[in-house]
Amino acid sequence: MFKRLCIIGTGLIGGSIARAARAQGLCQEIVAFGREKNQPNLQLAKDLGVIDQFYTHISAALDHADLVIIATPVGSMQSIFELIKPYWSATALYSDAGSTKASVVSAIEAVFGHVPNNFVPAHPIAGAERSGVDASNAELFKNRRLIITPLNNTDPQAVEKLTRFWEQIGSSVSEMSVEHHDTVLAATSHLPHILAFALVGLLGRKDEQREIFKYAAGGFKDFTRIASSDPTMWLDICLANKQDIIPLIRQFKAELSNIEQLLVDDQSQQLFDTFTYARNARQRFLDTLDD
Ligand SMILES: NC(=O)c1ccc[n+]([C@@H]2O[C@H](COP(=O)([O-])OP(=O)(O)OC[C@H]3O[C@@H](n4cnc5c(N)ncnc54)[C@H](O)[C@@H]3O)[C@@H](O)[C@H]2O)c1
Ligand SMILES: O=C(O)C(=O)C[C@]1(C(=O)O)C=C[C@@H](O)C=C1
Q: Which of 9, 100, 211, 246 fits 14 for a cystine, CB–CB 3.0-4.6 Å?
């Protein structure tokens, strides 16, 4: 059990971590750090009982904290590490929830000159298209995955402690390298979000957009739900992981061109085979989820 959990970034993810930790009795006290301009949100978090107290001064927020979790957009992490550095405690456990891992590791390296061994990079593979503390919930991480990307010097005891924390709030924890994490997530999370943003953007610019959205049914909603996600968060993710995302966009364009050509050439059998291959691949993927 932790004495004091400090959340930096009390939005969907930070708020959900706080709620889940409280629900499972994993810490005695939960505090948050936020910027002056974010006071109304912090007050809301307190009123909702998500946190016990909030501070706009980092030293007060970190005082006696033995678990610190950073849940701000990945582009802001370096500025957060700069704020924390003067108060870094060798006995506390530090982690984050950022959707990209190489950028977070580079950010902390840029500030400290190395990655402190009590910082454990982590990423919950759970979320929503909504943001802010009012969208947070204690169940968000139940039966979902959490990836830890330890470095060579990361303290195994810190990894063990963080693993237990996430398991107690319902996640199944896996470990992988920072690079592998970013390559996998580019394919399974970053590219799909870009495709949803691109499709809705394309249709939104069409003259007949009212008609298009009026008659949109389940398929369109399923495919585009994630285009309602926060643009700041996704700008940060895309910039942070562009080296993995750009090759995938190129491969996707080739895939689309292939389908376009099959249509132009009336290649029904090949189109059928293309769709069947994808359908079977998705079924194999669903079967692995049941394992
Ligand atoms: N939303 C998801 O589905 C999801 C899933 C997994 C991981 N993540 C990651 O979790 C992190 C948070 O995402 P979220 O969805 O909770 O976003 P959010 O917008 O709901 O919350 C972010 C919070 O951080 C605060 N913040 C932003 N910049 C700050 C700064 N410089 N200093 C202090 N506070 C700051 C905001 O005011 C807000 O309260 C991101 O790194 C994101 O990549 C998101
Ligand atoms: O379910 C959603 O709305 C999400 O976008 C969640 C999702 C994802 O792509 O799966 C989004 C970003 C994260 O880093 C992790 C999870």
A: 9
Q: What is the average pLDDT value for the chain, to the nearest integer?
A: 96
Closest residue by CA, ligand 2 atom 7: 127
Cα–Cα dist 230/227, whole Å: 8
Ligand 1 atom showing the smallest separation from residue 74 Cα: 41
Same domain, 113 and 67: yes
| Ligand 1 pocket residues where CB is under 6 Å | 8-14, 34-35, 38, 41, 71-74, 76, 79-80, 97-99, 124, 127-128, 131-132, 230, 233, 237
pTM: 0.96
In the block, tokens 């001064």 appear at 57
pLDDT tens, position by position, 238-252: 999 999 999 999 999
| 28 shares its domain with 105 | yes
Sites in the chain below the pLDDT cut of 70: 290-291
The protein residue with its alpha carbon nearest to ligand 2, atom 1, reads 128
Residue 125 CA to residue 146 CA, distance in Å, equals: 6
245 touches 214 (CB < 8 A): no
The residue segments making up the domain with residue 273 are 181-290
Report the nearest atom of ligand 1 relative to the CA of 230.
Answer: 19
User: Cα dihedral angle (166, 169, 174, 178), rounded to 10 degrees?
Assistant: -50
**Are residues 145 and 9 part of one domain?**
yes
ipTM for this model: 0.98
For the segment 82-121, what is each residue's pLDDT rounded down to a tens digit? Answer: 999 999 999 999 999 999 999 999 999 999 999 999 999 9
